[in-house]
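Minutes, methods subgroup
Present: GH (chair), OT, SY

1. OT presented the first of two proteins processed in the latest run. Sequence and structure tokens recorded below as shown on screen.
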Amino acid sequence: MRHGDGSHASFYGPLRNLPNIRPTCFCMYGLLVCMVKYRSLGVVEFFGGGRVILIIDLLIDIAGKIIEHLIPNPTAKFEKNMIRLKDEAWFSELEKDYRYQYIIYNNRKVKRFLSNETNVKKIISMDLEREQFILLIKEEHEKFVGLRK
């Protein structure tokens, strides 16, 4: 089947009469690809060549996951460390308090502290570091409440 030989006319024959749809067929990598463009919406759908599009989409998704794994963003580090801390009873109680929960999730200083894996390991394993962290949260809460008055 070659492009332009008329053999694919049965595919988009009914679509030809609709005013907002313009069908087009072309050959890519040995596959007949038929594209229907909705003029008013600017949306393009592919028929027949979906395997090619699917493979390209899959490769892009895999590359994105690899890059995300190798170069994690600060938000991912924070979320990962929060999962570890929620297993600790003292942190769960601190987080349940709505005043401190707001500070933990919205204060830049506390979030930066919790995004560092070394700091999280220290507050989990060392009582002194834990007490200093709790004090930091309470101090940041006092600053926040002082600003609102």
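2. SY then presented the second protein from the same run.
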Amino acid sequence: MLMKFINKVHVIEELFVGYALLLVAIIASIQVFMRYVLNLSFDWVEEASRHLVVMITFIGAGICVRYGSHFAMDALVQYAPNRVKHVLNVVSNLVSCIVMFVVFYFSWVQIEKLHRFESITPAIEMPMYVPYLPIGIFSIVISFRFFLLFIDHIIAFVKNSPFENTKEKRSL
């Protein structure tokens, strides 16, 4: 039952990224048409697009960690012995987990400050902390996914399991 829920979250995550990218493309195209053909312009398009792209970036980064397609320098790992591959991945995933947790912490510090000051965005006029929420929410999701990969490689190292690439190995 938990796996069904997690799989539904994965589908929602991927659909959201796809539709959000489509939405950014559509509103940017409409803005170009309005500005250069009709000589009119919407104030909110650039701001909304920027906020959507930040959200897409953080959700997409989480998806990349889940599929094992995040940026990695794997030349050393590729030629290392099996157990060394696990150790290098343990270190890599632990460092990535910690970095994303630090991003999570400081993003929530920033969100709290923005919430306290009650500032609003200039064009859309929504509370300024709202566009920062995806950074806080999805940085902890990314950190958690790196932590799960960290645990997977520790277990594989202890069991002396053959090294497997993490792409679609686990449904994080």
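Chair's summary of item 2: The chain has one domain: 2-159.
Next meeting: continue with the remaining queue.
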